[in-house]
Amino acid sequence: MELQLFILAGALAVIASVFIPAVVTGSSPVATSGRVRKALLGLLPKRLPRGPEASIIYELGSGWGGMAFALAKSYPNYAVIGYEISPLPWLVAQLRLGFSNQPNLQFRFASYYNHNLSDATLLLCYLLPEPMEKLRLKLARELTPGTLILSNTFAFRGWRPLDQRVAEDIYKSHVYLYEIGTTSK
Prior knowledge:
alpha/beta; Rossmann fold; seven-stranded mixed beta sheet; 5 helices; about 35% helix; 7 strands; about 180 residues
């Protein structure tokens, strides 16, 4: 009986570690499919513009880490930083990182809302519409012209994408590329 209670408590803790942050932020960690990942990467130039200070790629809500790993591999001369506040996906991404050879990648167990993102060359997000609006306001304040933003599935309201595609997945997911300075309609 004690073992069963221990297993039940553990299972509830795992569920809570994903569910509670999802309720707080309005976004749950959802893995990006290979076909959507391909569409997102297909929107990006082979060479990203280099900023005057650092060349940093941020994934905002990096979840299990799949997209961050793909970005780190595609752009080995850039630091790739994934932000995640859901403990289980962050831990899985950290474990994957420990078994990989990806020196330009790191995952932070923190909210990107509490960090200045002005040094970004590229940002990636896969968030629901309500958190996207809050993020849009933050990015408009912090980012400099020329910064690229990739969005998976959900568009930024009031911004005109530089480019967009439909992924060849079962959902026909839309992906968007924005550039700060060209986003006004």
